[in-house]
């Protein structure tokens, strides 16, 4: 099994993106609707959608949202939660590297540091597929941790308690590949669960160069919802491009 399929289990959802308050997701979508200049009924593709936080909120507001994710349990939950809203989203199970995205989207979004799992070639492939899936003038939004910030604040070892479970993470950054290689050990009641992986980290200029090479036009990069510009000490970058 590839590391990103193994990493995203029930614990990771419950203690990570599954724990984000609905109020925060609504703020994300307020911001996205603003910077992507979305109109009611627009088609939005949510890549790496998880349990569909953003797709569901988009659908609730009258957009046509489609989410793609590899994890069947997350998508099952997404579909269940959708039943509580008037408009439902469309959820597709699949690997974003292999699946056809469809076309004619007004926007494509990638939320919550869900980029950098694959080889550099495959990462670029995802972005090229996003480009193809968009209408002319369609917009692309990515929310991604800033490599510059991570390296300034890099912790090689971390020992914390998450939901009363001891979680020990050892990290090693490879300067030649810009990958954060990690091993996580969770000391659960019935034994130790080990997860490992290799996360490609990106700086703003690199994301911009890659997307411009594909054919996108850079619209803006933001440090926060007040639209302050990106800085080296921005932790979470939000970047907008147009086809
Ligand atoms: C950090 S979670 C983000 C979830 C969601 N965007 C959110 O903000 O709530 C990353 C997601 O990427 C999915 N994923 C990882 N590798 C994938 C792949 N190759 N194809 C599709 N989805 C993948 C995982 O299953 C997980 O749900």
Chain-wise SSE layout:
Layout: H1 3-7, H2 10-15, H3 22-35, E1 43-47, H4 53-60, E2 64-69, H5 72-82, E3 90-93, E4 105-110, H6 120-133, E5 134-145, H7 147-152, E6 157-162, E7 165-174, E8 179-188, E9 191-200, H8 204-214, E10 217-222, E11 236-242
Parallel strand pairs: 1-2, 1-4, 2-3, 4-5
Antiparallel strand pairs: 5-11, 6-7, 7-8, 8-9, 10-11
Helix pairs in contact: 3-4
The structure holds S-adenosylmethionine.
S-adenosylmethionine binds at residues 4, 8, 17, 48-50, 53, 68-71, 74, 95-97, 111-114, 117.
Protein model, in words:
The protein has 243 residues and is α/β, with parallel strands linked by helices. It has eight helices and eleven strands. The chain has helices at residues 3-7, 10-15, 22-35, 53-60, 72-82, 120-133, 147-152, 204-214, and strands spanning 43-47, 64-69, 90-93, 105-110, 134-145, 157-162, 165-174, 179-188, 191-200, 217-222, 236-242. Helix 3 (22-35) crosses helix 4. The longest helix has 14 residues, at 22-35. The radius of gyration is 18 Å and the shape is globular.
């Amino acid at each position: 099994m590839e590391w990103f399929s193994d990493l995203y289990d029930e614990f990771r959802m419950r203690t990570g993106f599954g724990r984000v308050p609905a109020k925060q997701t609504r703020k994300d979508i307020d911001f996205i609707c603003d910077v992507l200049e979305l109109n009611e009924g627009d088609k939005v593709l949510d890549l790496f959608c998880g349990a569909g936080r953003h797709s569901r909120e988009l659908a609730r507001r009258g957009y046509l949202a489609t989410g793609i994710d590899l994890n069947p349990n997350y998508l099952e939950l997404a579909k269940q939660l959708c039943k509580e809203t008037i408009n439902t989203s469309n959820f597709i199970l699949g690997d974003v590297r292999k699946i056809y995205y469809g076309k004619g989207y007004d926007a494509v979004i990638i939320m919550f540091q869900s980029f950098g799992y694959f080889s550099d070639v495959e990462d670029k492939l995802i972005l090229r597929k996003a480009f193809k899936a968009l209408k002319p003038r369609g917009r692309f939004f990515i929310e991604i941790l800033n490599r510059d910030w991570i390296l300034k604040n890099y912790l090689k070892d971390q020992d914390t308690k998450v939901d009363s479970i001891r979680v020990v993470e050892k990290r090693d950054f490879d300067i030649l590949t810009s990958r954060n290689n990690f091993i996580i050990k969770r000391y659960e009641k019935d034994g130790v669960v080990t997860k490992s992986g290799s996360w490609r980290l990106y700086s703003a200029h690199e994301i911009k160069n890659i997307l411009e090479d594909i054919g996108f036009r850079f619209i803006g990069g933001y440090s926060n919802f007040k639209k302050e510009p990106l800085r080296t000490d921005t932790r979470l970058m939000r970047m907008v491009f147009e086809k």
